Amino acid sequence: MDAAPPITSLAELADPARCPRLVIKVGSALLVERGAPRRGWLTGLVQEIAAARGRGQQVVVVSSGAIALGAGRLGLAKGGRATLADAQAAAAVGQIALAGLWAELLGQRGITAAQLLLTLDDLEIRPRYLNAAATLARLLETGAVPVVNENDSVATEEIRFGDNDRLAARVAQAAGANAVVLLSDVDGLYDRNPVLAGARLIPLVRRVTPDIRAMASGASASGLGSGGMAAKLEAAMIASRAGMAMAIGNGAHALPLARLTGAAALGTLFLAGPRRHGARKAWLGGRLRLKGALTIDAGAAAALARGASLLAAGVTAADGAFGRGDAVAIHTAEGRLLAHGLVEYDAGECLRLAGRHSSEHAAILGYAPRSAVVHRDHMVLL
Question: Are residues 133 and 184 in the same domain?
């Protein structure tokens, strides 16, 4: 797709010139109530999706709700989340119901729905990511609305996104979207718990800074910790690194997209970051699962900031059981994350080479060394 001008306001999410391709994430609480679908509410959202398409926008939906729907049909306790086996069984039943619901309601508007079930590896392993991206692109070309969900019936704790906020950001990246909208149970990001007196909605976030992240931490008393606003801020960082805008809006109301983008424009918009990287580096920067970490000294950190590769002399520690070609985090001794990169040595070799000059590497390894521990072509600064 041709590059669209950057999105600078919530209203522009409804402008096909600014946002020709949009991803909308819908949570379980919005879709399901007491084990049954909220058909009236969903009918209104489908009406808005049809209107967006009528304006010339392409739409991808990331939809939760399979476990909640399946648990209702199977009569499982705790919404189907008492055990992993319950969640997988509930998802297997609920996914049919969820897909059927979307297909029915979109079909009433003359729109073809497509189902795409993903696990974490489908977007973290590069060839599988490219396959998912190609499928999304072709579906959108045909005029279908892809409905994406995590494949909870086979996903284990080791290969789960764990929340559909981050899944939505990664799907938006794979789809080449201009923006992603997270429909939530709050109006947006607040500077503190929104139930507290004086809580202030933050309408615009230019960059997710430590101060912004603190608003979603337990220490801030926001009441919106892991799995809530914290996950949404992680999604915002993924979107920003990929050059996409992200918005949080309250989905509890009828016609939530109109409420988010209309005259009142009530929500929080996170601006897209600059498109500094190609598609491969953007994918690397958005990864959620890394095989290990390298700790580096101040001199190496300064060299990375200048665009250099990471050399073994600047490495002070290596953690994790990673192999050559795996994705690792690179951070300072203080724990500040600097970059993601594809490492040229396994963990044991990195430990043996740490702090040693290049001239020593051949003797240590017993073979001709590579040019760097992480080459700059396989690294993205964060």
Answer: yes
